[in-house]
Amino acid sequence: MARAKKPRRRDNPEAQMRLGAHLRELRNRFFIALIFIVLGAVGGFFLYQPLTSLLFEPVLSVGEISPDKRVEIVYDSVGMPLEMMIRVSLFFGLVISAPFWLYQVWAFVVPALRKKEKRYTLGFLAAAVPLFLGGIALGYWILPQAVRMFLTFNPPDTSNLINANFYMTFVLNLLLAFGIAMILPVVLVGLNMMGILSAKQIIKHWRITVFLIALISALAAPGSDIFTMFYLAIPLVLLFAIATGLAALNDRRRAKRLAAMVGQEDDLEQATPLEELP
C-alpha cells in the first residue's frame, strides 16, 4: 500500500495549518518549554539558599540601615519552607531557560518562515533574552527602594514581621512583570516582520499603547509606588519608539521589494513579441 505523500511547500505556499494541527503544535511546544523549565528548576534546588538570601536581602537590609527598625521574615506554617523552595526553584528555572522557552514561543507564532527569514529567529532571541533578563534585573534594582519606602510609614518603636509567602509572591510577580513587559516591543517587531502589523497601525494606536504601558506599569508597581511605575514606563516607551522605527524601516524595505517585483512584471507584459521568421 502506497504511503501518503507529505504536503510540500509548493502545494501549500502559505503553510496554513488546521485548528487541530495548531493545538497539537501548541501542546508540543508547551511541553518542550516545560521540560527546559523543570531542568532549570533542578539547578534551582541546589542554589536555593543563595537565591533566597538574594531575594530576602532588600528587606533584611532595612534593619541594618535603620537600627531603630526591626524587620524579620517569618514562616507561619510547617510546610512553607518546602513550598518556598519549590517556588524559588521554578522561578530560577524560568529565568535560566529563557532562551529555550522564548524560542518555543517564537517557533509556534511563526512556524512557516522561509530559509531567508530564519535569521529573524536569531534576531528575536538576541533581542528578547537580554531584554527579559534586563527587565528582571531592573525589577530587582528598584525592589529595595520600594521596600524602604513602604517601611518608612512604620510608627516609631514598631517592628515588621513579614510573612515569607506574601513577600515572595510580591517579589516574584514584580520581577516577572518587569521581564515580560520588556519583551512586548520585540513581539511588535515580530508581528510586523510577519506582515500582521504595519508601522502605520502601530503609530495610529499609539494612545492605546501608551495607556497599556501605563496600566502594566501601574499593575507591576507595588502598592501606590509611583516611582516604580515610572521606572518601568520610561524604558517601555523608549522600547516602543525603537520598535516602531524598526517596523517603519521594515515596511519601507518591503514596499521597495514589492515595487521592484511589480516593475519586473510590467516589463514582461510590455515586452514586444519576437518577429516571425519569413
Please render the helix and strand layout as text.
Elements: H1 19-46, H2 48-65, E1 70-74, H3 80-96, H4 98-109, H5 119-151, E2 159-163, H6 164-193, H7 199-204, H8 206-220, H9 226-270
Parallel strand pairs: 1-2
Helix pairs in contact: 1-3, 1-4, 2-5, 3-6, 4-5, 5-6, 5-9, 6-8, 6-9, 8-9
Membrane topology: Multi-pass membrane protein
Protein name: Sec-independent protein translocase protein TatC
Keywords: Cell membrane, Membrane, Protein transport, Translocation, Transmembrane, Transmembrane helix, Transport
Give the low-pLDDT segments.
9-15, 274-278
Strand content: under 5%
Distance between the termini: 56 Å
- Name the strands of the widest sheet in spatial order: 1-2
What is the number of independent domains? 1
Radius of gyration: 26 Å
Helical content band: over 70%
How can the largest sheet be summarized? 2 strands, parallel
Which class do the helix and strand fractions yield? Answer: mainly alpha
The ordered string of helix (H) and strand (E) elements is HHEHHHEHHHH
Describe this structure as you would to a colleague.
- This protein is mainly α and 278 residues long.
- The chain has one domain (20-264).
- It has helices at residues 19-46, 48-65, 80-96, 98-109, 119-151, 164-193, 199-204, 206-220, 226-270, and strands at 70-74, 159-163.
- Strands 1-2 form a two-stranded parallel ribbon.
- It is globular, with a radius of gyration of 26 Å.
- The model is unreliable at 9-15 and 274-278 (pLDDT under 50).
